[in-house]
Amino acid sequence: MEKSLEIKMMHIKYVFNEEEKVIMASELAEKMSKKSDLELQKKEVASKFTSDINSLDVALTRISGEYRQGYTFKNAECYEVFDYDTKTVFTHRADTEDQVSVRTMSAAEFQREIFDPREEIEPDGITEDRDRTDKDETFDKISYGLKGSK
Fold this sequence. Notes:
This protein is an alpha+beta fold and 150 residues long. The protein is 44% helix and 16% strand. The protein folds into 2 domains: 13-72; 78-143, no CATH class. The protein has helices at residues 18-69, 107-110, 134-143, and strands spanning 78-83, 88-93, 99-104, 119-121, 127-129. Mean pLDDT is 83; it is low at 146-150.
């Protein structure tokens, strides 16, 4: 029988030698280390995104609630006007003078001083104003609801 030689590419079993195994082990360790680093970075980024998303959820909840209610609470400078005849306290914003609340005086508030602490009582019973300033007059006008009048 006649033999013929034909050369072609085939997929066959190949056994690695020791030098190739050392190179593969080094490559395997490098790839595993890189994978571990990337997974850690992925967790950090995912954690950051989760934190950012949670912050936005909190802001969305707050803003949507305020929008739905139509108001929010803020700190603002206010002044109170005490009406001792009706035992009522009126609270106004200092910047806009809008009335923000009306309430009944507490017992402690109703126990006001008989004399203005800025006045001195003289031995003859005549009172004299101590040195009063424009600021005191403004306070008096605000306290008695007379702001802007003389």
